[in-house]
Amino acid sequence: MQEVLENDLFKEITSHYEKFYKLPPLTARIYALLVFNNCPEGLTFEALLEIFHASKSSISHSISVLVELNFIEQFKKDNERKRYFRANKNLFLMRLEDVQERLLHEMDVYSKLRAYKQTNANMLFNQEAFDFYIGHLAETTNSLETTIQNLKSYKKKNEESY
User: Is residue 36 within 8 Å of 13, Cβ to Cβ?
Assistant: First the structure.
């Protein structure tokens, strides 16, 4: 496992989660490992302790953050008391839906701001820039919607095949 932790791609993924999701370093490393490893059977708390050589409270806090954010799933296997953790299997769908929600909200806010500026125009208002930006947001959210629907169809088709 140490080999994975020293892998440049693993380090890049960890840095990505720290920067763009504002995760603390250990939390980002745990999440990156679960995504990188993509282990459907999950990893136990004890395994995470052994891999990261961190305190129980640090690992526990990181897991709690990731579960609360819905980034990871926790589960128990039949007749076992141990908890297992793995990346949320709806990871891509969740990410796209989150981005779509943010962009739709931004489009709504800037559309309202554009309307306000149209009636209360001043020298700094640039109608064309607002139109380009809002148009781009509309195109992007439409593209995201198509991809989200495709992922949902893929997921449904694959769940039925089990």
Answer: yes
CB 25 within 8 A of CB 35: no
Q: What's the pLDDT at 160? A: 62
Query: Which among 144, 76, 71 is positioned nearest to 104, based on CA atoms?
Result: 144
Interval 123-136: pLDDT, tens: 677 889 999 999 99
Q: Give how far Cα 99 sits from Cα of 1, 29, 141, 143, Å.
A: 32, 22, 9, 12
Give the Cα separation of 87 and 120 in Å (integer).
49
Question: What confidence category does residue 86 fall into, taking pLDDT thresholds of 50, 70 and 90?
Answer: very high
Q: Residue 74: left if φ>0, alpha if ψ -120 to 50, beta else—which one?
A: beta
Helix 25-37 with 45-52: angle, nearest 10 deg: 110
Q: Which residue has the tokens 């640039």?
A: 126
Q: Are 100 and 141 in contact (CB under 8 A)?
A: yes
CB atoms within 10 A of CB 95: 13
pLDDT at 69 over 70: yes
Main-chain dihedrals φ then ψ at residue 119, nearest 5 degrees: -90, -20
